[in-house]
Each structure stands twice: as C-alpha cells, then as structure tokens.
Design a protein that fits this description.
The chain is mostly helical and 501 residues long. The protein is built from 28 helices and no strands. Keywords: ANK repeat, Repeat, TPR repeat.
C-alpha cells in the first residue's frame, strides 16, 4: 500500500467508524480529532495550539485516538510528516517509543512506507528498533513483510536484532514467505539464521516453498530457496518436514531439481506417515516429478512392481490401502474426529485432534479457526485470540478468522477491538448476515459498557441500527447503506494482510 492508498484508507475508515458510539471516534469537532487531523496534515501551529496549557496527562488524552492502526504520532510518521513528528517529540514531550492503542510505534509506522528521514530522526532520538507489538512483531518484521530493503539496512545498522522472533517466526521467515528477495539478501548479509524454526514449526526454507500454495510463483520461490541454501539452510533437517517433502507435495519440479542437486535425500519420508517424496509427487498428480525422483528413490516394499506406472496407479487408488496413505487424508481424518467431538460438545478432545492436525499441516487456516472455536467454548479467550490471529495471517481474505477474533475479544470484554474485528470481516463480505449480527452485538455491548462505567442510563432511544444498518438486517438498498457498503468495498481493496503491514 503506497502513501496515497493509505490516505484514502484513513479517510474511508474514519467515515465508517464515525458512526460507532462510545469507542468509535470522538466527535469530529473534538480536540482529539482536531489534534489527529493536525498531526496527519503536518499543521504545526494547530498542534501547538491544541496542546497549549496541557500537562502530560492532558496531552496523552489528546493523542488517545486510534484510526487505521495508529494514533496522531504514528500516523504522522506513516505519512512522512517529519516536522509534525519533531514537534510532538521535542516540543510536546511525546515518548519516542509510544505505541498506539494497537501497540504500533512511530518507528514501525515509518518503516511501512520506508519514510527514511522519519526513521533516522526517531532512531537518533532513542527509538528502540527491537520494540515489539502485537504477536511479537517488530519494525524489522514489517520491513521484511513490505520488502523495504533500505529500511531493513537502517534498522540493522541501528541495533535491530536480525533474528528477533515473533510467534510466526523471524524477519527472514516473513520475507521468505512473501518472496521479498531484496530484504532476504540484506538479512542474510547480516547473518540471519536460515535454519531457525518458528513456533508453528516452519523454517525460512519451508515458508518459501509453502508460499507457492498461497500464490507465490514457483520461479520466485526457487530464487528464495537458492538464497537460503547458499546461506547454509539444511536441506535434510531432522526436526522439521524436509524441503523435498514440501516441494514434492506441491509439485514444484524446478525446486525439486535444485534441492536434489543441493544434496536433498529423496528417501527421507514425511515423519508423520512415512510417505516418501515420490509418493507425494504421485499424489499431487505430477508424473514428470515421479519420473525425476524414480531413479533416486529406493524401492518401497509395499509396491511389488516398482515402476512409474504402478506408483502413479497406486496414488490414484482409493485410500483403503494404508501403505500409501496421502498426507491430506491423515489430516482430514483428524479434522473429522475433531468435528465429531465438537458435535458431542467435547471441546477439549476436539482441540487435541485439531492440534495434532496442525502438527501435520501448520499452514491450514481452518484448523486454527476450529481450534479457536474450541478455546472459546472452554472460555480460554487468550488462546482463542492467538489462533484467530494465526488464521487471519494464513488466510487474510477469509472472514471466519475475523469472526473468531471478534468473539475472543468479546469474551475478553474488549468491545472496541471486537467491533474493529467484526468490521474487518464486513469489509471482506458486506453481505454476511452472521458478521453483521456479531457487529451489532459488539456495538450494543460497547454502548452498555459505556453507560455502566458512567453510572447512568441513556435518556433517549439510541438508533444506531438505523445509522449503521439502514436496511435493518434485510439489506434493502437505501442510499446511506449503499454509500457505507461502497466504502467497505473500497477499504477491502486497500487493507493489507495485517493492519499497517
């Protein structure tokens, strides 16, 4: 997302959230919104005027607005408003490492669009390049995700840890998973560990190969694989799935050829089921890949006729023969057991099945969504939220992840963030009645919580349903609804995988 796109998203989200009561946005004429606007526009006289006479607590209140992931300070940094950033740090006393309501710092924000002058200023004034926010992400993760090579160099020269880990891995994991070759080179030049294993069991090499299943061209994946192998990535790891197993599973012929030349052993099976790469290649339907692996693979005893034809035929047969059981069937069987356990309301048992299935395929978003549901039913909100966030990372276009996230936040009584999660789902599918109902519920909970905190009941009959959903659930196309959903569609196109990333 470039700067102009971010500006449009900012405007669209402001319009949408302005209709939210108590936890949406302050009134358009409030000092808080005026301060936000002044920061985003680089209006220094207005910033000084609004902050005049306020103590530290008053200035903190003034900046307590979060829109598109950032407050006034972070938004000014994201938009490259260096003078506004300087004013807030040097004149108004803002903490250079202050985070928005979502935890995003000004340094992270500036990294997104490679605002080098702002980044240098913040780092020169003590910004911590290793400060982490949501799920352990740091500025270097953001540079890797967006492919900001120059920003990565600056961060590393300023003390950023090259292998700083989040729950989804190091910056090298992030860059490899998105084919950001330029950033990968920078990270490897600074001795990033190409064999680091993430919490979900992946290495940078496995991330680069698995990314082809999510749309990354094999040609790009191959370039990433070559970089990693040349940097010392192990092509025959013992603690994780081998790269050759992954490449064969996805039918990546060029990647398999390179891995074999690099010393990958075609006789190492997938540990969970004993299936060799040649069998996985047959299951994927790639005869060419089977022919490539055939002379290098030791005969399998369960196949009496060791020929390419028999290997292909055996893969096409029904999975009643346990000797060549496809990996996907193993995962599906566990998933089926989990679904049966959910029907029995045995949520603990179901979560165990889903956990085992995740160990077989940590890239399947549906498994995290299902396990998140189990955690919700067991009132384990934090675990439910973690799984929902992983689901969103793996399938950002699938609304179920946002629904699970919103439900977890509702359980945590963080109604404002729950509204944001459900709204993100509506941005993806404005016609989802389930998401609309959940969003309504979050708005009502937020309103009730506000009144409970204030100790009084509303004296008027609030009609937020009619403001937010003029069709009253029937989706009758009124003018205001059409405008709202048109903006939702626009924000859908502009929203990236993770807010601000």
């Amino acid at each position: 997302m470039d700067n102009s796109d971010f500006s449009v998203r900012l405007s669209a989200e402001r319009y949408l959230r302005s209709a939210l009561p108590y936890g949406g946005l302050p009134g358009k004429d409030s000092p808080q919104m005026a301060f936000f606007d002044a920061a985003s526009e680089g209006d220094l006289p207005r910033l000084r005027e609004l902050a005049s006479g306020r103590d530290a607590e008053g200035k903190a209140w003034l900046a307590d607005v979060c829109l598109a992931g950032g407050g006034p300070f972070q938004t000014a940094a994201r938009l490259g408003k260096l003078d506004a950033v300087k004013c807030m740090v040097e004149e108004l006393g803002f903490d250079v490492d202050a985070g928005s309501q979502q935890g995003i710092t000004a340094l992270v924000a500036a990294t997104m669009d490679e605002r080098m002058e702002v980044m240098r200023y913040l780092l020169d004034h003590g910004a911590d390049p290793n400060k982490q926010y949501s799920a352990g992400f740091a500025a270097l993760h953001c540079a890797a995700t967006k492919g900001r090579a120059e920003a990565a160099k600056l961060l590393l020269s300023s003390g950023a840890s090259v292998d700083i880990a989040s729950c989804d891995g190091t910056p090298l994991h992030f860059a490899a998973a998105r084919g950001k070759i330029g950033v990968m080179k920078v990270l490897l030049e600074h001795h990033a560990d190409p064999n680091k294993v993430s919490e979900i069991g992946g290495t940078p090499l496995s991330e680069a190969l698995c990314a082809t299943d999510k749309g990354l061209p094999e040609s790009i994946s191959l370039k990433c694989v070559k970089l990693l192998v040349e940097a010392g990535a192990d092509v025959n790891p013992t603690k994780t799935v081998t790269p050759l197993v992954i490449a064969a599973t996805y039918g990546l012929i060029d990647c398999v050829k390179y891995l074999l030349k690099a010393g990958a052993d075609p006789n190492i099976p997938r540990s969970c089921c004993g299936t060799k790469p040649i069998q996985l290649a047959a299951i994927s339907g790639s005869r060419k890949l089977v022919e490539l692996l055939f002379p290098l693979t030791s005969p399998i005893r369960s196949l009496p006729n060791w020929t390419v034809e028999d290997i292909m035929a055996h893969a096409d047969s029904r999975p009643s023969k346990p000797t060549v059981k496809p990996v996907k069937n193993t995962k599906l069987q566990l998933k089926s057991h989990g679904e049966e356990a959910v029907k029995r309301k045995d949520y603990h048992g179901a979560s165990m099945f889903y956990t085992e299935a995740i160990e077989l395929d940590p890239s399947d978003a549906t498994l995290y969504s299902n396990r998140s549901l189990c955690h919700l039913e067991m009132s384990k909100a934090e675990k439910a939220l973690h799984d929902a966030n992983t689901c969103i990372r793996l399938r950002p276009e699938w609304i179920k992840g946002y629904y699970r996230k919103g439900a977890a936040l509702m359980l945590l009584k963080d109604y404002k963030k729950a509204c944001d999660a459900f709204m993100a789902g509506l941005q993806l599918d404005p016609g989802s009645a389930e998401m609309e109902k959940a969003f309504r519920g979050a708005v009502e909970a937020m309103k009730a919580d506000h009144f409970a905190r204030k100790g009084f009941k509303p004296s008027v009959n609030w009609q937020w349903d009619k403001i937010l959903f003029p069709g009253n659930g029937s989706h009758t196309a009124s003018h205001s609804e059409a405008v709202l959903f048109a903006l939702l569609g626009m924000v859908k196109q502009l929203t990236s995988i993770v807010p601000w990333i």
